[in-house]
Please model this.
Amino acid sequence: MLFSDILGQEHLKSHLTQSVDNGRIAHAQLFIGPEGCGTLPMAIAYAQYILCKNQNSENEGGNEACNLKFKNLSHPDLHFAFPVATNDKVKSHPVSSHFLEEWRQLVAEQPYGNLFDWYKLLGIDNKQGQIGVDEAQDIVKALSLKSYEGGYKVMLIWMADKMNTAAANKLLKLIEEPPSKTIFILIAEDEEQIINTIKSRCQILHFPPLAEEVIKQALMKQYDLNEGEATKIAHQANGNYNKACDIVYQDSEDLQFEEWFVFWIRSAFKAKGNKGAILDLITWSEDIAKTGRETQKQFLHFCIDFFRQALLMNYGADDLVYMEPKTQNFKLEKFAPFVHNANILEISEELQDAIYHIERNGNSKIILTDLSIKLTRLLHKK
Model:
């Protein structure tokens, strides 16, 4: 992975290459950034810069055979760990080494992809993946061996915020005192989900969302879009290059989510004093409950974003509004007045609670029905 292939983040590229050039490589680093900002491609390029002893910011000039191995993600001293779950291929004790073929496919096709894209590729979008204790044992085993090429060993843990407590505790000692010339690079989106004992042992690097101009230029180059179209998509992407690509392909899960959201909101409005609309809400809850838990969580996060956008529009912060609903006869400006300071905190709390309970395997149908009835009350709040 060349540094020039990574969008924006110039100050972070320069910081990382300088730390290697000056021989000041932290043994445990935590890259934190929102979806689509480039934490994964940056981590791979950084690992390549270290292992192949490259000299310039293009990630070239070092060991050519090593650079070639990186191109296929097959370098023997580069190890990966990421959230997994059982699927048709792996029936029990799933670990990352069982899914390396799919992993290489994801990095080649969607280096800015998110967890949902990864689960879809594995065919486990109805389950919740995690980095478990089996994975931790594999990591300990892999890092106890000498490096294949006599230099550094790099362990890249993607979505480290999905690591369960048992796995985190097992890796704690190893992260604190790793074997000689061993580097941990942890990548996460939600800093709060990483236990403090691991966080305190890592050097933390925060990645900002990508600038609109950076996304615009990348879209014009990659998809041959005209400037107007690229500018519009870059604005809607809100700093997330993965979302921008989804919008180009019309493949964004947000289109389906918007359809569900609009039906939900309309039914919630009708439900005041109308028993028939309550049945619509119950049917809606049953339909959403049939999808996978990851889909449900993604959808509820989308709802939180939608309400936030409506609130911003209601209070005149139009520059911060990037959503453009595609549903016929549904206008954000008409919906916005119903989201205000008297109900937004409660709406947000109810959605967060629903995500929390779904994550802990609560009955989705009951959780979503309860949420729908509460939403009906909150939307009519003066």
